[in-house]
Amino acid sequence: MSRSLKFREPGSRGFTLIEVLVVASIIGILAAMAIPTLAGSRKSALQSACLKALRSVTDAEEMHYRDNFAYTGIWTELDDYLPNAYSGWGRKHFFIQNYSLSFKTSFSNQRYTVYAYPIDRSLRLNTFVIMDDAIPLYNDFRPVH
Please, are residues 77 and 109 in contact by the beta-carbon 8 Å criterion? Predict the structure, then answer.
């Protein structure tokens, strides 16, 4: 009663169910490894864009100080000092698309702090702070690496 089992006849076309399941499971395993990595890349890119924006705001504040001997806490006063790509409300909104910026100046306008709060909490982005010393910090005032 010994029979030889044939998985595929020599002239048949197509794949067996086992072959399809093996390929599907391999694709599933690869996708499970890749998706968290891609999500982390997006978060990192958004945070890097925010830090770049904060550095541009810092540069604009310093140029404003050079011309007026005081920092400003008003976003529109920085229009002349920001790169052309960021001037105008529509462009600024895109510039800070995932973050909301909050400006604070000292009573004498000799010091400033800019806070960047994430708009969408589901992205789990960090909150950043940059002061007149131009060192980007996390919200708890640890330096950003």
Answer: no
